[in-house]
Each structure stands twice: as C-alpha cells, then as structure tokens.
Design a protein that fits this description.
Length: 293
C-alpha cells in the first residue's frame, strides 16, 4: 500500500468521522441505536486497503471516486457492518461495488421484517422430508424431516430449506431442490464451480435458500420502516462526495468490466445490479439484491 493511498485512507476516515459526529449532533444524521456508522466506515477503509482487482492492483488506486462514494453510501444506507462480513467490496473494471452477503441479508431481515431468527437445513439422499402450505396465509410449513447421521454427505444433497421465525411467533419457510439451487448458482460469476461450491455444496445450498426466503420479506417491507432511523441528508452526501473528489484517484484505468477480485468468492451468487449514480442519491432505496450462492 503506497504512502499516498495510506494517507488518503487515514485522512478520509478522520474527516468523515468528524463530519458524521457533527451531523448527528445537529440532528442531520440518524442511525439505528445498534448500528455504528463510525465502526462501519473504519472497517470499510481497512478492508479497502487490502482489496485488489484481478491484476493485484489496489482498489483505491483503480476505482473511480464516484464508485467509491457509492459503495460507502450503500454500506451506511443499508446499515451493514463490513467487519462482520455483512458486505464485501469488489472491483469490477474500474468501479468499486458494495455487495451484500447473505449474512447482511439476514441482519436486515431481522431489522426491518420482524424476523427473530432464521435457520436453514440441508436435505440429503435418504432423508424423509415433507412440507405443506397454510392456505390461510399462503406460507409454507415443514411438516416432517427425518435425517439419519449416515445420510449426511455433501455430495448427495437433494435440496435445502430455510425457516424464518417472526417476533410474533409465526413462521414461514422456503424450500428449494438442487435443480433450483444450481440454477441460482448459474447466475453467479463462478457458475457454481468455485472451491466453496465444489467442496461444501450443502452449506452453499443453505445460504441460497436463506437468500431466496428473505429477499421477498425485505423487498416487500415498507420504506418507512426501513428508513425511519436512517437518514442521510444532502449535506452528508455532499461531504462524502467532496472527500472522495479531493482525495481519491483521478485516473480511470481501462479494465475489462468482467474482471473481478479474488475476494468475490464469498458472494459470486448474484449478478451485480447497476448502481444509482452519485447524482441520484436521493433516490437510493434499500433493495433486496439476489445473492444466490
């Protein structure tokens, strides 16, 4: 890491934290009580110091200032913690993208969709598995799953299911067979052929079905519930944009847009959605991406 990039990181972190504290004092920035934007930004910049593109070049040197700003704003807007691996930063060409992980999806589901807990279980050859529907609510119910210890074999996975347990005591479930799961993996850059998919298909299947279940819950939640405690003002956006403009690299490198970093492996489960430009910040909304592992 060059001295210039290190200084950029330290200066930007210090300045952003100072402004965030100022905005909170003035009432211009409101965050959930259990979320620290300061910690999120510090961990984000620590991670970005080590993030590289496919050609081993530092992300802070390769990526445009607009994409760095968007990635940071996405992190805070969604209330994600980079240090808890609720999101990842990936270099696509000359753009930095914040990609939410399935753990981040679970965290947001608990925050905005009234979910108390989420569990996921793999189904193996030889298991006895049955599920049904509650026709009064349209929700799925797992009615039977018998599994012998001898059946557990990562290479003989038939499918997986996830159960969301809501704070009111009700539940909902999602069930996927391996054909559906592999189709989801095909949407990712690795096409389901990464070392994680090959060695631990049962664990990756569980992540996929969790993401499928929570995508609907988060996507159907009301925006007021999502943002009543998270408010980013125009002043905040202007400051972050100014910090990136002054301190980030000015050079745009011509790299194929299909290039990705080695850090992509945990989250190659979804296609990268086009990001809102920095000028459209007031239209940024919390969206459930399609993290299909």
């Amino acid at each position: 890491m060059s001295t210039q990039i290190k200084k950029f990181t330290e200066d930007t972190v210090g300045s952003v934290l100072t402004k965030l504290e100022q905005f909170k004092t003035e009432g211009g920035l409101k965050l959930p009580e259990n979320y620290s934007a300061e910690n999120a930004l510090r961990s984000a910049f620590l991670i970005l110091q080590e993030t590289q593109d496919l050609n081993k070049r530092p992300a802070l040197e390769v990526c445009t200032k607009e994409s760095i700003a968007n990635a940071l704003l996405d992190t805070v807007l969604q209330g994600l913690s980079p240090s808890k691996k609720q999101c990842y930063y990936i270099v696509y060409g000359n753009k930095l993208v914040m990609q939410r992980s399935y753990m981040g999806t679970m965290a947001i589901g608990k925050r905005v969709a009234g979910i108390k807990d989420v569990v996921s279980i793999a189904i193996y050859d030889g298991d006895v598995f049955e599920y049904g529907f509650d026709f009064t609510t349209g929700r799925k119910n797992i009615t039977k799953h018998e599994q012998n210890f001898e059946n557990i074999n990562p290479q003989k996975v038939k499918g997986a299911y996830a159960i969301a347990i809501f704070k009111d005591g009700t539940t909902d479930a999602e069930v996927m067979n391996m054909e559906q799961i592999r189709s989801s993996w095909e949407m990712g850059k690795a096409k389901g052929n990464s070392p994680a998919h090959q060695k631990f298909p049962d664990e990756m299947a569980k992540k996929t079905v969790v993401s499928r279940l929570l995508k609907t819950k988060i996507g159907s939640s009301d925006d007021a519930d999502l943002f009543d405690e998270i408010e980013i003002t125009d002043t905040t956006v202007a400051f972050v944009e100014n910090e990136i403009t002054e301190k980030a690299n000015k050079e745009t490198l011509d790299i194929d847009a299909e290039d990705v970093t080695e850090n992509e492996q945990p989250i190659e489960e979804s296609e990268i959605k086009s990001k809102n430009s920095i000028e459209d910040k007031e239209n940024i909304q919390l969206k459930a991406t399609q993290p299909e592992f």
